[in-house]
């Protein structure tokens, strides 16, 4: 197979009229240029350049080959420019995953804004509380609200998120509020359950130690917003990120319990494959989403006197 380098050496030799001039422009020795042209001619089975002591010129076969080689190099240059442009301008398909609640309230409204600015990018948004396999699903950006495990993906952290146990006043009127973590075992706990979920084991911080409890309840769901609605209806105690229930706490519709032994915190952040060779569409979406999440969390925490993130 003829290499692109051999084609470029041939073109430059034909244009300059000598192996020496071609070698100087390509930073190759005349002997290397001569050898590459000879090898090319042997491969094609015909003479491409006639050589004299004073000058070289194209043969008829050489002229035909020269014209075709110009087309080839032009096509390669256009392909290179297309890739460079694709890396500089957001375009293509962007696959995004996010938790249901944050996805509905923050990420989904952001997508039309992103598309208004970058209409050449198609967005595939998948909302789920289940932590998808980012490699298997070929995800470009994952918004995660969880305890981050080691990952080959790059994490752009938004904030460390406090969580809270809370229930409606109506529930606590019928069921005495838990005084110690172990008391949760006697309560209806509203659980986020899906394949691989760990929400039915609640881990609380007790001084310098943590305690993990195998809590249970009569109802569970795979949607965090459903759990919040059930808690508001007085169905049990729920474990939620503080910012997600801040408005309900501020208005007294939910009441915190076990404040002296809070749940362990989780990390809110964006995962994406790598900082190196990051596509323009991914970088732009990550930047926009990071700011939108930071602003949303800060606004919600302000309702309960929390600091901005």
Structure description:
InterPro entries: LysR-type_TF_proteobact-type, LysR_HTH_N, LysR_subst-bd, WH-like_DNA-bd_sf, WH_DNA-bd_sf. Keywords: DNA-binding, Transcription, Transcription regulation. Belongs to the LysR transcriptional regulatory family. It holds the Pfam family LysR_substrate. Residues 2-59 form the HTH lysR-type domain. With 309 residues, the protein is of the alpha/beta class. It has 3 domains: 4-84, Winged helix-like DNA-binding domain superfamily/Winged helix DNA-binding domain (Arc Repressor Mutant, subunit A, Orthogonal Bundle), CATH 1.10.10.10; 92-161 and 267-303, Periplasmic binding protein-like II (D-Maltodextrin-Binding Protein, domain 2); 163-264, D-Maltodextrin-Binding Protein, domain 2 (3-Layer(aba) Sandwich), CATH 3.40.190. 42% of the residues lie in helices and 23% in strands. The protein has helices at residues 4-16, 19-26, 30-44, 60-88, 100-117, 169-174, 224-232, 242-250, 280-302, and strands at residues 49-51, 56-58, 92-98, 121-127, 141-146, 154-161, 163-167, 189-192, 202-206, 209-213, 220-221, 237-241, 255-257, 266-272. The protein has a 5-stranded mixed sheet with strand order 4-3-5-14-6, covered by helices on one side. Helix 1 packs across helix 4. It is rod-shaped.
């Amino acid at each position: 197979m003829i290499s692109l380098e051999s084609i470029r050496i041939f073109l430059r030799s034909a244009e300059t009229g000598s192996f020496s001039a071609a070698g100087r422009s390509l930073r190759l020795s005349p002997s290397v240029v001569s050898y590459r042209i000879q090898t090319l001619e042997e491969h094609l089975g015909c003479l491409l350049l006639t050589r004299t002591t004073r000058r070289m010129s194209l043969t008829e076969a050489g002229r035909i080959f020269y014209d075709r080689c110009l087309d080839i190099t032009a096509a390669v240059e256009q392909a290179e420019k297309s890739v460079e442009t694709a890396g500089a301008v957001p375009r293509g398909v962007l696959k995004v995953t996010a938790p249901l609640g944050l996805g509905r309230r923050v990420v989904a409204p952001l997508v039309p804004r992103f598309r208004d600015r970058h209409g050449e990018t198609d967005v595939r948004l998948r909302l789920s509380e289940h932590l998808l396999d980012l490699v298997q699903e070929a995800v470009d950006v994952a918004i995660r609200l969880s305890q981050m495990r080691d990952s080959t993906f790059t994490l752009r952290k938004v904030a460390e998120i406090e969580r809270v146990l809370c229930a409606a006043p109506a529930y606590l009127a019928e069921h005495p509020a838990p005084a110690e973590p172990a008391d949760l075992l006697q309560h209806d706990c509203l659980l986020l359950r899906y394949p691989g979920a760990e929400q039915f084991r609640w881990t609380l911080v007790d001084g310098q130690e943590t305690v993990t409890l195998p809590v249970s309840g009569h109802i569970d769901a795979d949607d965090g917003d459903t759990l919040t609605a059930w808690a508001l209806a007085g169905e049990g105690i729920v474990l939620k990120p503080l910012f997600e229930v801040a408005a309900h706490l501020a208005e007294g519709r939910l009441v915190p319990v076990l404040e002296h032994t809070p749940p362990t915190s989780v990390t809110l952040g964006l995962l994406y494959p790598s900082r190196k060779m990051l596509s323009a569409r991914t970088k732009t979406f990550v930047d926009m989403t990071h700011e939108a999440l930071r602003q949303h969390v800060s606004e919600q925490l302000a309702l309960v006197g929390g600091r901005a993130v």
